[in-house]
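Go through this chain.

——
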Amino acid sequence: MKTLFAAVLALSCVATQALADVVVIGNPAGPDSISASQVRDIYLNRSQQLPDGQKAVPFELQSGNPVRADFHGKITNRNDAQLKAFWSQQVFTGRGQPPQELANAGAVKNSVASTPGGIGYIDAAEVDDTVKVILTP
């Protein structure tokens, strides 16, 4: 019984971590908001512009990150395998390059804050005044 309780407790902790509140962040000089469809178009290489006309520079968390899975589940409706296949085709046909992958939320936040047109996603708990939330999917 104690083992079962420990297993349930461990799974509930994992589930809580997986339910992070992902937010889309932008450079402070960029637009104040963006639609989910505009973000999807940027991350699927259909558009390279932010709503204010700036060139979008998207940043991505590394494959396997639960916040990345949450973001893509809500925005692009693709998993890591589907994204890898999509970007392989884009690169092979010369249509584009995938967003730069960064190791953690801090790196995404720093890159977005220091790049004009920067856009990324992180857990809402990681947001500070160096970036602004432009979408809560």
